[in-house]
Design brief:
This protein has 275 residues and is mainly alpha-helical. The protein has one domain. 75% of the residues lie in helices and 0% in strands. The chain is built from twelve helices and no strands. It has helices at residues 3-16, 23-35, 41-58, 60-75, 83-104, 106-110, 116-136, 146-157, 166-176, 181-208, 219-244, 250-268. The radius of gyration is 18 Å and the shape is globular.
């Protein structure tokens, strides 16, 4: 991998991580279109650490408040009525499905599921789900429940398939459950922190091993791509939270459908290779 590739992929990661359009799919597609090679699941997972660090900093006060409430609740029964204590548990519980499935299907995630035909199809299919959820959502509540955390956690696990989108899956589930766009989006951001940090740290040894196929990034290139993803990702968090308070997700739905259709055409005509 050269420096141009590393920086471009960092930009793509930062721009797309928090939007319901699948950052892993975009890194995969851009790698194939511009460089004719797959940057790999491990490199993608590591540079996602940059965007998640942006979330941690942006929500630092909320996260600190949740952590304090969680630790207090572990030793004091009366503290367990604190909404932040429950929310901390909901994040932990909601993160479990993607952690378990990520370990079980590690090999498939890094090989078979990165086929661009799969990416194109799920990009369009889950756009339809998001559209239905957005149009029919009651948006009647802001408070999460244990049931919400489990269902949204399972939806997040679907993002192990490039094209589904971690935020797209959780937002779709949240809307179907009756949560507002704002509360679904905030929980989606918080829910991603444990899973993305876990996947990124778990993938560091694979990135350091440069003997595998595809464009292998050096340590400095990986660090720079991660920093670029952090800077752009931080701006994206603030923008998306403001956007969802006033707009529907229809723009993202049409974008996903258009991108999936274009990708299918490129695959069908042999312009890009599916693997």
């Amino acid at each position: 991998m050269n420096w141009f590739q590393a920086i471009i992929l960092g930009v793509v990661q930062g721009l797309t991580e928090f939007l319901p359009i699948s950052s892993s799919a975009h890194v995969r597609i851009v790698s194939e279109l511009l460089f004719k090679q797959d940057a790999g699941a491990s490199f993608t997972a590591v540079i996602q650490l940059g965007t998640e660090l942006a979330v941690v900093i942006y929500f630092a006060k909320d996260i600190w408040r949740m952590l304090k409430a969680w630790f207090r609740g572990l030793v004091k029964a009366e503290a367990r009525q604190d909404p932040d204590y429950r929310l901390a548990w909901y994040v932990i519980i909601g993160s479990t499905p993607i952690a378990v499935l990520g370990v079980i299907f590690k090999d498939q995630i890094r090989t078979d599921l990165r086929n661009l035909w799969i990416t194109a199809i799920v990009m369009m299919v889950f756009a339809v789900f998001l559209a239905i959820a957005d149009e029919t959502a009651r948006q009647s509540r802001d408070t999460l429940t244990l049931k919400d955390s489990v269902i949204m956690g399972l939806a997040q696990a679907m993002a192990l398939i490039p094209g589904v989108s971690r935020s797209g899956g959780t937002l779709t589930a949240g809307l179907f459950l009756g949560l507002t766009r704002e509360s679904s989006t905030r929980y989606s951001f918080l829910l991603a922190i444990p899973s993305v940090f876990g996947a990124g740290i778990f993938s560091i040894p694979d990135v350091l091993d440069r003997s595998g196929p595809g464009p292998q990034a050096s340590i400095p290139q990986t660090v720079v791509a991660t920093v670029v993803a952090f800077v752009i990702g931080y701006a994206s968090v603030a923008w998306l939270l403001k956007y969802v308070s006033k707009h529907s997700f229809s723009a993202f739905v049409w974008y996903r459908i258009a991108l999936g259709a274009v990708l299918c055409a490129l695959l069908a005509t042999g312009v890009v290779s599916p693997t």
